[in-house]
């Protein structure tokens, strides 16, 4: 949907913690910090911080009009986590497909 608002929300992460949203048009499925990094090379990582109350973080954007139908984006968050074996936790990955 061209120009439609898109919302991505990370929930149940550590509170008040740095996070980065990784977005790619390819899936890499690479081992990373003890997990699996799904998005391929990311040209524009989106940094942020989870909230202090719920450990949530939301990104809102308009879907670009120039993206053709059937186009896929792979999204995943990397969250700073002092208790993770290598200091970073990865969220579940999402795939978004245009219609």
Characterization of this structure:
It is a single chain. By secondary structure, the chain is mostly beta strands. The protein is built from no helices and 9 strands. It has a domain at 17-44 and 77-99. Helices cover 0% and strands 51% of the residues. The chain is globular and about 40 Å long. The model has no long low-confidence stretch (mean pLDDT 93).
Looking at this protein, list some descriptive labels.
99 residues; single chain; 9 strands; two-stranded antiparallel sheet; mainly beta
Question: What is the strand and helix layout of this fold?
Answer:
Layout: E1 5-10, E2 18-24, E3 27-32, E4 35-39, E5 46-49, E6 57-62, E7 72-80, E8 88-90, E9 94-97
Antiparallel strand pairs: 1-6, 2-5, 2-7, 3-4, 7-8, 7-9
């Amino acid at each position: 949907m061209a120009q439609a608002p898109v919302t991505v929300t990370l929930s149940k992460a550590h509170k008040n913690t740095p996070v980065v949203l990784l977005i790619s048009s390819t899936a890499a499925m690479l081992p990373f910090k003890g997990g699996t990094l799904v998005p391929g090379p990311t040209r524009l990582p989106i940094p942020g911080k989870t909230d202090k109350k719920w450990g949530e973080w939301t990104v809102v954007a308009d879907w670009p009009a120039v993206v053709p139908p059937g186009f896929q984006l792979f999204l995943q968050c990397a969250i700073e986590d002092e208790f993770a074996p290598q200091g970073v936790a990865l969220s579940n990955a999402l795939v978004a497909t245009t219609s």
